[in-house]
Amino acid sequence: MSQRQEFFSPQSDRSQSSSATASSSDDALSTAAERATNVARDTEAKRKAENLYRATSSGAADASDAIDATADALADSGHETLSQFAASISDRVRTFSNYLENRQLEELVDDARGLAQRNPALFVAGGVALGFTLSRFLKATGGSRRIS
Q1: Could you tell me if residue 102 is left (phi over 0), alpha (psi between -120 and 50 degrees) or otherwise beta?
Q2: Where are the domains of the chain?
Q3: Would the pTM count as exceeding 0.85?
Q4: Are 70 and 86 a contacting pair, CB within 8 Å?
């Protein structure tokens, strides 16, 4: 068979067709594997975020209890004004803790998104304050890890 006949032969067409099918199958498998990896990554990230969210809620409740104990100690030592102030802070922290406990993570994200849309300046200022607080906290805890 000449080259020209091989090029147009049915066997050559089948070879090209199976090669194209194999290539599209490889592309489909690659895309499916990529999607599965992304879903697994998203699921793991969501699970970690949920765990952190629950720990934050629990930590807020614990903080409220500790502030209550401080308020009681202040009242016992005769510092009524400071005791009332501590009790007020405890109530606010407890309200925040209850808010977290009664919401799902998605609802909290939706609430934050709504706040950002209604009042972007407040949202940006809160982000700056949170960043500053977090940097101070990390700086303070990082200093205790240094080896002399």
Answers
A1: alpha
A2: 105-148
A3: no
A4: yes
